[in-house]
Specification:
- With 331 residues, this protein is an alpha/beta fold.
- It has two domains: 5-221, Spore Coat Polysaccharide Biosynthesis Protein SpsA, Chain A, CATH 3.90.550; 231-328, no CATH class.
- It contains twelve helices and eleven strands.
- Strands 1, 2, 3, 4, 5, 6, 7, 8 and 9 form a nine-stranded mixed sheet that branches.
- α8 (252-265) packs antiparallel against α9.
- The longest helix has 18 residues, at 226-243.
- The termini are far apart.
Length: 331
């Protein structure tokens, strides 16, 4: 198929959302858009839904592969895509009908490698998939330095600005995937690591001002798997330390926060990993104690391991323990 843009929709057990995602691609104002569905080993009825859609729309292509994670699915889809430009889309999200046309209209004619990025909207839904709240995230035009600095702050609530390079809101030249693929060792943060490497390779990022994508946030997933995310953040920062040690100082706000979390959760394994990334001093227990070196940090962790959670952290205190502590402190 001779086409200028390919959209790769990756899915794992998201059959109920797939048609909406596909329709947002098929309904693009830009003609001749190729759409690929990459099924990453789904165990629901994704295959049946996808095959029904393919029978109705000849520009659709469906691929099934053994489960390997979202990075592996994106890399697989990129290899199968035929377009000069490439868009990645998760099956439970969708894009604005004019996204691809408008973003391409914003590209320069210099011929250099480029990534187009835009604003997006987070759509919070309840367990019945009813929309509870929508929140627009206006990214704005950012410099290379601003993008790099923001990519190194996670979790996102630690920053005072929205995450700027959401996969769903970007458009790549496919040739860039020859320079960099998604890291299959990361279960999360693979998108951050991917675009960070492109920025550091000198790829130009061009802002296209529009709400280009709609990111569905499931209420049941708001807490997610905290330990999994923590390990992914740490893995991401370890890659930064390994390949770009000069950037590690920009990670410290996040590293300090994650150390505090390992103290709270008594997560010794991840504490040991973070101790190799940290720069001092480190504030602990909401700034009440400060560790000025690695020896003191390890001593404080050992002390923490024998102190009951409820004595240090409000979230572990029930009504009974609050009353007991109140009586003790009063006396």
């Amino acid at each position: 198929m001779n086409t200028s843009v390919s959209v790769v929709i990756t899915t794992f057990n998201k059959a109920r959302y797939l048609e909406q995602s596909v329709n947002s691609v098929l309904g693009q104002s830009l003609p001749n858009v190729e759409c690929l569905i990459v099924d990453d080993g789904s165990t629901d009825n994704t295959k049946e839904v996808a095959e029904d859609l393919v029978s109705l729309h000849p520009q659709l292509r469906y691929f099934y592969k053994e489960n390997g994670g979202v990075s592996d699915a994106r890399n697989f889809g990129a290899q199968k895509a035929t377009g000069e430009w490439l868009q990645f889309l998760d099956a439970d999200d969708w894009i604005h009908e004019d996204k691809l046309r408008f973003q391409l209209s914003c590209r320069s004619d210099s011929g250099e490698n480029v990534v187009l990025y835009s604003d997006y909207e987070r759509v919070l839904v309840d367990r019945e998939d009813k929309v509870v709240k929508t929140v627009p995230y206006i990214v704005g035009e950012l410099t290379k330095e601003q993008l790099i600095e923001r990519l190194l702050i996670c979790p996102d609530f630690l920053a005072d600005s929205p995450f700027p390079l959401l996969q769903q809101s970007m458009l790549f030249q496919k040739s860039l995937l020859n320079q960099k693929s998604f890291d299959t060792n990361l279960q999360a943060c693979e998108d951050r690591e991917f675009v960070l490497e492109l920025l550091l390779k000198g790829v130009k990022f061009v802002y296209a001002p529009m709400i280009a994508a709609y990111y569905r946030k499931h209420r049941s997933n708001l807490t997610d798997n905290e330990r999994l995310m923590r390990e992914s953040y740490i893995g991401y920062f370890e890659l930064v330390q390994q390949h770009h040690p000069q950037l590690l100082s920009l990670c410290q706000k996040s590293v300090h926060y994650l150390i505090e979390q390992t103290f709270a959760e008594k997560d010794q394994g991840n504490f040991q990993r973070l101790a190799k990334l940290v720069e001092f001093p480190v504030n602990l227990w909401q700034g009440r104690i400060k560790a000025y070196n690695l020896v003191l940090l390890h001593i404080l962790y050992r002390l923490r391991s024998v102190i009951p959670n409820l004595l240090l952290y409000e979230k572990y205190r029930g009504p009974r323990s609050r009353r007991l502590l109140s009586l003790v402190l009063r006396n």
